[in-house]
Each structure stands twice: as structure tokens, then as C-alpha cells.
From TrEMBL:
Membrane topology annotation: Multi-pass membrane protein
Gene: LOC102709271
Keywords annotated in UniProt: Endoplasmic reticulum, Membrane, Transmembrane, Transmembrane helix
Record-level GO cellular component terms: endoplasmic reticulum membrane
Location of the protein in the cell: Endoplasmic reticulum membrane
One Gene Ontology term from the biological process aspect of the record: response to bacterium
Transmembrane segments: 27-43, 49-69, 125-149
Domain Reticulon: 17-198
Name of protein: Reticulon-like protein
Name of a matching Pfam family: Reticulon
Length: 198
């Protein structure tokens, strides 16, 4: 079991983020859950909008920094300790490389559907898009983000504790879904062949 825990930790990045997701830093993980819940409550239930909260927070920050700098010059105190605020070329290049990989994957799927006429990929894409559309009708965007954050903070530790049982059930579900998908694909293949012979 220790090897599977190490592999799950490595799969999640192996650093501080993996520690937070697996609740090895309980205070930080609990703070993340509380913070996500507070943000969701602020925007979803209290009726605030993101632009108004962001502009008010930035207004407060700019006012504090301005008065701090003014009082520091009058009282001969040090200026506010601000880091150098700029994005490095390395960060932009890494983000562009990751975005390029994802964009190429999406384009490869589109190529498989449009050019190769791969029915398996076509049906999988349709099913995934239908599920996303259906879930999107049930919740608004902010609630979906909140649910995603909660899942990312609560599912990995549960999976780590019950990995053998979860893998067994997921394997069974995968075999059943694969059987149904193969049946659908074979039936659609037969109906198109029958139409061509007619």
C-alpha cells in the first residue's frame, strides 16, 4: 500500500500541491476548503459579482499602498515592501508549451473525426460533450468551479485510502461501458453498411 500511496503522490505532482490534495498538510487543506466555500458563498449566495469584489479589493489595496508610501516619506519610514511585479519569459514559455500540447490534442481529435472518420472517437466526444452540456444546465459556472475544487480536495485522500476497491469498481464499470460502446458502434456500422447496399 505504501508504494501505491507514493505513486499517487507522484502522480499529483509530488510537491506541496500533492501534500495539500492528499491532506498531508491538514491546516492548508482545511483552509483551502474553507476559502473555496467562503468565495462560493460570497459570489453565489450573497449576490456579489466578481468585477465588483475585485475592483473593491484593488481599490482598497491601492489606497493602503498610497497612504503607506505617503506616511513613510513624511515619517522617514521604509516604503512598502513590494516585490518586482512582472512575469518572466520562462513562465510565459512554459504556459505556451502546455497550451500548445492541449491545443494539438484537441486538433488531433478533430482530425480523427473529420478526416479519418473514426466512429469510436466521434461517439466518445459526443458523449462527453452531452454530459458537460447536461451538467452545465444543472449548475452555473461558479458552482461548477466550486464542485471541481471540492472534488480535487476530497477525492484524492479517499482514493488513497480505498484504492484497491475503487480500482476494482472502476475496472468493472469500464468493461461494461466498453461493451455497450462496442455494441453501439457495431450497430451504427451495420446500419450504414445496409444503407450503402440498398
Amino acid at each position: 500500500m505504501a508504494t501505491s500511496r507514493r505513486s499517487l503522490h507522484a502522480l499529483l505532482g509530488g510537491g506541496a500541491v500533492a501534500d495539500v490534495l492528499l491532506w498531508r498538510r491538514r491546516n492548508v487543506s482545511a483552509a483551502a476548503v474553507a476559502g473555496a466555500t467562503a468565495v462560493w458563498f460570497l459570489f453565489e449566495r450573497a449576490g456579489y459579482s466578481l468585477p465588483s469584489v475585485m475592483s473593491n479589493a484593488l481599490l482598497l489595496l491601492v489606497a493602503i499602498l498610497f497612504f503607506w508610501a505617503k506616511s513613510a516619506s513624511l515619517l522617514n519610514r521604509p516604503l512598502p515592501p513590494l516585490p518586482k511585479l512582472e512575469v518572466s519569459d520562462v513562465v510565459v514559455e512554459k504556459a505556451a508549451d502546455k497550451a500548445l500540447v492541449w491545443i494539438n490534442r484537441v486538433l488531433a481529435v478533430g482530425h480523427d473525426i473529420a478526416i479519418k472518420r473514426d466512429r469510436n472517437v466521434f461517439i466518445k466526444v459526443i458523449l462527453v460533450l452531452w454530459v458537460v452540456s447536461y451538467v452545465g444546465m444543472l449548475f452555473n459556472f461558479l458552482t461548477l468551479i466550486y464542485i471541481g475544487v471540492m472534488f480535487s480536495l476530497l477525492v484524492p485522500p479517499l482514493y488513497e485510502n480505498y484504492q484497491d476497491h475503487v480500482d476494482e469498481k472502476i475496472g468493472m464499470a469500464h468493461s461494461v461501458l466498453s461493451r455497450h460502446l462496442d455494441t453501439i458502434i457495431s450497430k451504427t456500422g451495420q446500419s450504414t453498411k445496409q444503407k450503402k447496399t440498398e
